[in-house]
Amino acid sequence: ISAVAWYQAADEVGSETTSGPPDLSVIDELITLPTQSIVVSATWADVARQVAQDSTRLYGLPWKAFEDLIANLLERHGWEVQPMGCTRDGGIDIIAAHKLGPDISIRMMVQCKRYKESVKVGVEQVREIWAVKWQHGFQQAMIATTSFFTKGARESGQAWNLELRDHEAIAAWCRSCGKTLSVT
What we know:
Blueprint: H1 3-14, H2 25-30, H3 44-53, H4 63-76, E1 80-83, E2 94-101, E3 104-113, H5 123-136, E4 140-145, H6 151-159, E5 163-165, H7 167-178
Parallel strand pairs: 3-4, 4-5
Antiparallel strand pairs: 1-2, 2-3
């Protein structure tokens, strides 16, 4: 139903001058409200276990679940993480901080690329992350992808000291964490 039709029906009901309750049958005929589905989502530990057992499950993760998985893997390795949300993140999906000493900490930005297996992360995306890293003064930057990196992207990432985590690296990360994860 269009908003115009709904408002017209509401106006017709509200404009009645007769006594008693308004005839809502006009609106009942026009409006069908959708029922809400209950979605049970797996915890990040469950997702990590599933990826550890079958790395192809990475391709089926929604973008938010992939970002949450990466954030939680970082937390598991001692980083404090701050997800940036989904709007206007400026190329930064996660900000992670790690304390090296009482007054020394490093900040890392993370960009998550949820791609199909056939789509690889190229030099352009690596260059973009490198630029964002320097623009915002991060000491480190990571690109995590469900897919893989082109040869040029790997070479550029190494030259620019970027952490590149591809499909296989994330699956291995999940396997290493999977041994110590408890059921939540």
